[in-house]
Amino acid sequence: MRVKILVTGAAGFIGFFVSKSLLEKGHSVVGLDNINDYYDVGLKYARLEQLGIARSEAEIFGNEMQSSNEPNFSFVRMALEDREGLPHLFEKHAFDTVCNLAAQAGVRYSLENPEAYVDSNLVGFLNILECCRNYGINHLVYASSSSVYGLNEKIPFETTDAVDHPVSLYAATKKSNELLAHAYSHLYGFKSTGLRFFTVYGPWGRPDMAMFLFTDAIRNNRPIKVFNHGKLERDFTYIDDITEAVVRILETSLDRKISPKERYKVYNIGNSKSVKLMEFIMSIEETLGKEAQKEMMPMQPGDVEKTWANVDDLIKDYDYSPNTPIKLGVQRFVDWYLKFYKG
């Protein structure tokens, strides 16, 4: 069943891979991204080039561009906050479903630039919900985050856990997204599915994430900052596993009727395993064949000591559980990094 899907954040890490996978499955995709400068825009344009969108075209705001090598893909540079442009896009395309992966990312950056999180993650998300309401969208799949668990001490994290104690503005905006989606699904009858991603890594990954930061520093003989003196654990989740989960959720809902009880759901998307930070660093060192210079640092504001996803609901509803081993994922990232940054 071929459908037309809007993927926001299409120049971003997860959005790029989800768009690519949907196209490979024969769907029609319209990608949207504002290409902000939170991190190197060159990487964002390079992702789009993989989808057949030239940088010279992607730099233009507002105009929709057709891919040069993907007949079912087009791209428009637009911000979610564009309250006039977004409805026009929905009206033009009559999307079957929406995958909202656009957001201002980063826990620590939210301490420096809180306004960016309000604009994109709150105002922008409300605009998406309004468009879903007004243009007959059957299903909205959107990115939430494991950061919503905040100060929860019960491990592993379950979607039934209370998430009332966020420790960063970023986490608070993601929890707000879940609340807004619940209200709109209840009031207007369309399905919304929130995905709490756990520490996503892999090729084409974000430069502000640990995988990239550590690899780049070790390769270039710079020290790495090891927060909380290395006493951190993360549920590292490989990008292919994230993509498979997102696409499976998008496709499964297309050919079945939605009952009122199914209208609002939240899932953890994680590897169901917590890996010690020092073990993660060791995997990078072994792959690069180089030892890291480590600067032991205190805990950072907005950070948590441990994350670990319970994915029983994902297994039950979609017969899927992410399972890429950390060593394999690290190897694939390093291979890509060395090729992409060969200079």
UniProtKB/TrEMBL annotation:
NAD-dependent epimerase/dehydratase domain: residues covered: 5-270
Membrane-spanning residues: none
Keywords of the record: NAD
Pfam family, one: Epimerase
Keyword NAD listed: yes
SUPFAM superfamilies with a match to the protein in the record: NAD(P)-binding Rossmann-fold domains (SSF51735)
Designated name of the protein: NAD-dependent epimerase
